[in-house]
Structures are given as structure tokens and as C-alpha cells.
Amino acid sequence: MVKMRAAIAFAAGKPLEILETGEVMVEIKATGVFHTDAFTLSGDDPEGAFPAIK
């Protein structure tokens, strides 16, 4: 069984929470944060929906 941690945004302007998700198996080659992710997390995005897994 493989568990994965996810950075979850529950509300604008709040720190991301690292939580363990259900069973998954993935191979991560690279990762990054897109500018729209930061825009949504800041609370400036009027269409931002929470909770969101980033």
C-alpha cells in the first residue's frame, strides 16, 4: 500500500495543509506551482473554490 501526501488549500490566505490522501501509486518526475494556483490561494481569484488540492 502506498500513501501520498497532498498540499490542500482550505481557504484563501491560509497556509496549505499537508494531509495524507488515500492509496495511490504515482511516479513524480517534476512539480511546480503555476501562477494561477498562487492567485487562487491569495484570495484575489473571484472564482477560487476551496478546499482545493494543489
Description:
The protein has 54 residues and is α+β, with helices and mostly antiparallel strands. The protein is 15% helix and 30% strand. The chain has one helix spanning 35-42, and strands spanning 3-9, 17-23, 52-53. It has a three-stranded antiparallel β-sheet, with no helix packed on it. The model has no long low-confidence stretch (mean pLDDT 83).
How would you summarize this macromolecular structure in one to three sentences?
With 54 residues, the protein is an alpha+beta fold. The protein has one helix spanning 35-42; strands spanning 3-9, 17-23, 52-53.
The strand count comes to: 3
Cα-atom radius of gyration: 13 Å
Q: Tell me the structural class.
A: alpha+beta
Low-confidence stretches: none
Helix content: 10-25%
What is the H/E string?
EEHE
Number of helices: 1
* Global shape: elongated
- Overall mean pLDDT stands at 83
Note the main attributes of this structure.
54 residues; alpha+beta; three-stranded antiparallel beta sheet; 1 helix; 3 strands
Helix and strand arrangement:
Blueprint: E1 3-9, E2 17-23, H1 35-42, E3 52-53
Antiparallel strand pairs: 1-2, 1-3
